[in-house]
Amino acid sequence: MIPVLICALVSLSVAETNLDILYPELEHSRTIYVTENGPKFNVMAEQAKVVTRRGGNVTLPCLIQREQQLPASRKMRIKWTKLTSDYLKEVDVFVAMGYHKRSYGTFQGRVQLQGTSPMDASLVMTDVTLDDYGRYKCEVIDGLEDDTVVVSLELEGVVFPYFPRLGRYNLNFYDAERACQDQDAVVASFDQLYEAWRGGMDWCNAGWLSDGSVQYPITTPREPCGGRNTVPGIRNYGLRDKDKSHYDVFCFTSFHKGKFYYLIQSSKLTYDEAVRACQKDGAQIAKVGQMFAAWKLNKYDRCDAGWLADASVRYPIYHPRRRCSPTEAAVRFNGFPDKKHKLYGVYCYKENN
Predict the structure, then answer these.
(1) Beta strand 248-254 with 207-208: parallel, antiparallel or unpaired?
(2) What's the topology of domain 256-350?
(3) 20 to 30 A from 118, CA-CA: which of 30, 48, 195, 314?
(4) Is 333 helix (H, G, I), strand (E, B) or coil?
C-alpha cells in the first residue's frame, strides 16, 4: 500500500509541475463561481383553494415573485392547464406570451389574465360550469427560469346517488357519465363525496366516481353495508373496469339560474301529461339534479310527490315533519311508477330570460 501511495503522490507532483510549465500564468487556489443569467423568481398563490358556484365568476391566483425588482420579460410565457383527476394528463386552458394570448376548448371566451401588474398571472374565469371543477396549474417560464403552482377550484353544490329506470347496478362508467349529464349534473369526485359524507350522507349502494373508482359513504355501520363492527367512512371497491363493471353513480350538481317549482294543477297527471303541462307553462319537466339543487342549496320544501324528467317520482323535504319525512331532511323517492297509468303532480324548471 505504501509504495502505491508514494507513486500516486509522485505522479500528482509531476502533473502539477507540467501544468506550471504549460500555464505559468495560472493562479492556484482560486474558486470560480458560475451563476445563471437573469433574476431568479418563484410563483405563488395567495389561496390554494377558491370556491364559487355554477354560473359565477372566479379568479385563480398566481403571482410572480422576483429576487430583483426588474420588469417582466417580453418573452415571459404564462400557461394555465387543468389537471385530470389522476394527474396523468393536462388540459390546455390559456397561454399568454407578450401580446399573444390564446384560450382553448370550452374555456374559449371565458378566461383571461387579471393583469393588475406585470407580476400578476392570475386567471379570471367567467360563467363557471360544473365541468370547471378541479385543479389548475399556473406555469411561468422566463428564459431558463420556470416555476409552477397548483390551485383548486371547488363548487358549492350537492352530491346525490343515482340509478336509472333499469334498476340498480346497471351503469358502466360511460353510462354513468351520461346519466348524470341527463340529470343536470356530472359524476362526483372523491373529494365531493367525502364532503357529503362529512355532512351526514349515508348510502349503502356502491357508485362510480369521476376517477373511475367505485365507493359509497356510510355514517351508520350495519351488517349489509360493510359490517356492523366497522367504522364509519367511505367504503372503497377501488378502480373498476369502465366498460365491463356495472354500478350506480354519485352525481354532483350546483346552483342553477332558473326557477324550479311545483306546478299547481286541478288533477293529477300521467307522465306524458306532466311533460305537456310544463311545456304549456313555458317550462320543461324538471330533472333530478335540479330538484336536489333546489332542496339542498335553496331550501326548497314541498310534500307533494311529482314526476321528474327521468320518469321517477320524488319530493323534496327540507323541514322534516309528520307525514313528510319525519326523521330527516331528504329528497324522498317513490320509484319509477307506470308512466301511463299512475297519476302524480309534476315539478317544472324554467330558465331565466
Answers:
(1) parallel
(2) Mannose-Binding Protein A; Chain A (3.10.100)
(3) 48
(4) strand
How far is 162 from 250, CA to CA, in rounded Å? 6
**Nearest one of 62, 44, 43, 46 to 124, comparing CA atoms:** 62
Q: Are both 41-155 and 256-350 of the same fold?
A: no
Give me the pLDDT at residue 85, please: 76
Per-residue pLDDT tens digits for 118-135: 889 999 999 999 999 999
Cβ-in-10-Å burial (0-12, 13-18, 19+) of 135 comes to middle
- Written out in words, the top-level CATH class of the domain with range 157-253 is alpha beta
C-alpha cell at 74: 417580453
- The CATH number of the domain covering residues in 41-155: 2.60.40.10
Q: For residue 283, what is its C-alpha cell?
A: 317550462
Q: Which residue has the cell 319525512?
A: 325
Do 143 and 213 contact (CB within 8 A), yes or no? no
Report the largest interatomic distance among the alpha carbons of the chain, rounded to a whole angstrom. 113
Mean pLDDT by 10 residues, the chain (353 residues): 38 42 47 48 92 96 79 78 84 93 96 92 97 96 89 97 96 98 98 97 96 96 89 95 98 95 97 98 98 97 98 97 92 97 98 83
Closest CA to 127 of 45, 56, 199: 56
CA atoms within 13 Å, Cβ hemisphere of 272: 4
- CA separation for the pair 320, 332 (Å, rounded): 11
